[in-house]
Amino acid sequence: MKAIGLLKYLPIENEESLMDIELKKPVPQGKDLLVQINAISINPVDVKVRSPKALTEKEPRMLGWDASGVVVEVGEDCKVFKVGDEVYYAGSITRPGTYSEYHLVDERIVGKKPTALTHAESAALPLTAITAWEAMFERLAIDPTNKEGNQLKKVLIIGGAGGVGSIAIQLAKWAGLHVIATASREETISWVRNLGADDVINHHGSLKEQLAQIHIEQVDYILCFNNMDHHWKGMGEVIRPQGKICSIVENKEPIDLNVLKSKSATFVWEFMFTRSMYQTEDMINQHLLLNEISKLIDAGELKTTMNKKLSPINAATIRKAHALVETGNTIGKIVIENF
């Protein structure tokens, strides 16, 4: 089968950073599905894992996590999906990735592809949708069924135009929240407003001062999807007493949790690979939430966050997509379709 792999961790300009290779098609066992991939999308985690480092692989390593495709074989313990089902998923960071023509994935973290979307449009969603859903409805414990009560709540989404921010804005609006998103350029401001943001502020400026300008003193929830070191102090200033902050971005410098002490505020991490990495008892929840996302898409409540589509799926195209993500200026998601 066709695949794209690496042996060395090199700058993306180097043609050996990602290479076209041929591998034997894998065979599913247990709860694994064998999926024929139609489309993939590129996430910051792809770029981060591939970034230059003094490490050499003995066998080619496949990166990539987001995918949409069709089940062609199933393991003996599979109960959720069957051959012919159209699926989408974000895979596991501990297993070979989706830069391959065929891919093995545990069915407990796979969802039914939205019928209203193409494979390319669907591939933009899984990793970011899982992250946003878990961050809001599990880590921050926001009840999406309490829409009337949520209308009194405000959420600040830092990094609103990125992949996770783009779906988080939509989910927050669906849950009834008042959404303040950050964006700094004309095109990103337009993007987040079109997704449903009620207010937009610039993440390069003071969060407190800009919120005050729109007559908002504090927010109930904060979702940090960009540069936690830079925003930590500001988040501490604007979080409401007993409010909650969730970040998906690791800190590079020590952070002072004491800034939250007097407010009895909560800080929590979200890492969407936790369930598959540790084989938690509730792995099936990712299957269930992806199915909920599909239902919301098909009902017209949510839309794809795909903003750029490339083809075909090969090393040259993926290198191009990595280079775009590395700029830090991408809006929504970059998708690549067709081997």
User: End-to-end distance, in Å?
Assistant: 10 Å
CATH-level-4 superfamily name of the largest domain: Medium-chain alcohol dehydrogenases, catalytic domain
Described by the principal axes of the CA atoms, the overall outline is globular
CATH architecture descriptor of the largest domain: Alpha-Beta Complex
How many E-type strands?
16
- The number of distinct helices, counting runs of at least 4 residues, comes to 11
Q: How many separate structural domains?
A: 2
Q: Classify the helix fraction into a percent range.
A: 25-40%
Polypeptide structure, described:
- It is a single chain.
- By secondary structure, the chain is an alpha/beta fold.
- The protein has two domains: 188 residues, Quinone Oxidoreductase, Chain A, domain 1; 138 residues, NAD(P)-binding Rossmann-like Domain (Rossmann fold), CATH 3.40.50.720.
- Helix content is 30%, strand content 28%.
- It has eleven helices and 16 strands.
- The strands form three sheets. Strands 3, 5, 6, 7, 8, 15 and 16 form a seven-stranded mixed sheet that branches. It has a six-stranded parallel sheet with strand order 11-10-9-12-13-14, sandwiched between helices.
- β15, α11 and β16 form a beta-alpha-beta unit.
- The longest helix is centred in the C-terminal third of the chain and has 15 residues.
- It is globular and about 60 Å long.
- It starts with a strand and ends with a strand.
- The relative contact order is 0.16.
- The model has no long low-confidence stretch (mean pLDDT 97).
- It comes from Paenibacillus baekrokdamisoli.
- This is Zinc-type alcohol dehydrogenase-like protein.
- GO terms for molecular function: oxidoreductase activity; zinc ion binding.
- Keywords: Metal-binding, Oxidoreductase, Zinc.
- InterPro entries: ADH-like_N, ADH_Zn_typ-1, ER, GroES-like_sf, Lipid_raft_assoc_Zn_ADH, NAD(P)-bd_dom_sf.
